[in-house]
Amino acid sequence: MNLLSWTIFTPLLGALGILFVPRDNKTLIRGIGLGAAAVSLLFSLALLANFSTTVEATGMQFVERWDWIPTFNVQYYLGVDGLSLPLVLLTTLLTLLSLIFSMNIEERAKEYWFWFLILDVGMLGVFCALDLILFYVFWEICLVPMYFLIGIWGGPKKEFAAIKFFLYTLFGSVFMLLGILALYFNTTPHTFDMVEMGRIATTNPAWLNENYQIMIFLGLYFAMAIKVPAFPFHTWLPLAHVEAPTAVSVILAGVLLKMGGYGILRICYPILPLGFKWFLPALIVIAFIGILYGALCAMAQTDMKKMVAYSSVNHMGYCLLGIAAVSSTGFTGAMLQMIAHGLITGALFLLVGVVYDRAHTRDISAFGGLGARVPIYTGLMMITAFASLGLPGLAGFWGEFMAFLGAFQRYPLWTILSVSGILVTAAFFLRMIQKVFLGPLNAKWSTLEEINGRELAAVLPLTALTVVLGVWPKLALDLMNPTINHMVNSLSTVFK
């Protein structure tokens, strides 16, 4: 059974099914959308259940491979390992929970659900594709649905936010395509097989001369950095987050940002080791700027959603810090941080959306004393905020800890400076908790309704996983470790 294809394309079947439903039959549209997302999640859980985590299991699993365009040796080539499977699971989970939260969407519901499912197909394909052209196709598929989801269902500046997101990402994709073509024409025989290119680079890291590797690396990194988003390519993110509907913000932060970090680890590091090594001094500086700058920008915000958006720049900086360490500890920290950030920030955006649906404002200073009025909502928000600031015992701690641990061995000074980002993060989250939930209740919100069942169904699984991974990170580490250790060991001579 082709589990990967079923996982990726079940949402596509759901999207096509929605096209045949009359637009006023919203119940059936939602049922088909939720059903497709739920079945895709079940298929991803089947992948997890059959995934081998032994030390020897360092290669791709569940491989599917057929010729697609034989003339140019383009293949339909899928597979997952310890790097990609956790992100596939994160994607299917967040998509289902986001769609549950979206059940209150009334305006043009048919188109909304259609585009959301198409977006799911693109994201899953990126994490499973092992052919560079297939990877590029799935990467680009994500662009169009996100453009419409922001541009139609977003806030007051939705058109500007959608166009800015589209142009940034498309601009980066042009450089990615040029890098992919350069790799293709420098392999013999010509191939887009990223696993084969990685094998060649492992046996001969200088398979392309250093200057050529640097040029190709920069083209690929440019596209990945925009997606991360790494400084200075981050400026599209806060606007897109603030204008996007709540569920779309969850996917944007929880999954799309991870595509950049994943691409660096999957393509740039194993295929272009000399280019990667050359860029390391700049990468650690970029990581530090992202950590501190993102935290300081978040500290300055009065809009809760914008604060969480800038915190994403800060948290993805920790991922880049771990990647710059070029060690098993650092890479594992980067991956753990990506998973934890997806869960935590996804929950934060959902919770901000809950209060915005009721109060129609996200201004931190407009509230006060909500803890007495909505205790369940307050408890969930506090757990999630504490996880985001890296409190031990919650998922956010382990990724940051391992990223710092790995980076300290290579860059002690930059790592010490980066710790300041944690202090600022704690400051702005604690300030938000104090102003919104503590103190006397603002009489204006004396009739504010508690979080409802639909919203709880979307938020509780993320909160539960945040606690579970905080207490028992071994669940994720066992999936990742064999793959990451093999990646690092295979190029250890280059990065001594």
Characterization of this structure:
This protein is mainly alpha-helical. The chain has helices at residues 3-19, 26-49, 85-101, 109-128, 132-141, 143-153, 158-185, 194-203, 210-227, 236-243, 246-271, 273-299, 304-325, 328-359, 370-373, 375-388, 395-410, 412-418, 420-437, 453-471, 474-490; strands spanning 61-69, 74-80. The model has no long low-confidence stretch (mean pLDDT 90).
Largest sheet: 2 strands, antiparallel
| Number of separate structural domains | 1
Approximate strand percentage = under 5%
**Average pLDDT reading:** 90
Cα distance, first to last residue? Answer: 42 Å
Number of helices: 21
Number of strands: 2
Main sheet: strand order: 1-2
Question: What's the gist of this structure?
Answer:
This protein has 496 residues and is mainly α. The chain has helices spanning 3-19, 26-49, 85-101, 109-128, 132-141, 143-153, 158-185, 194-203, 210-227, 236-243, 246-271, 273-299, 304-325, 328-359, 370-373, 375-388, 395-410, 412-418, 420-437, 453-471, 474-490, and strands at residues 61-69, 74-80.
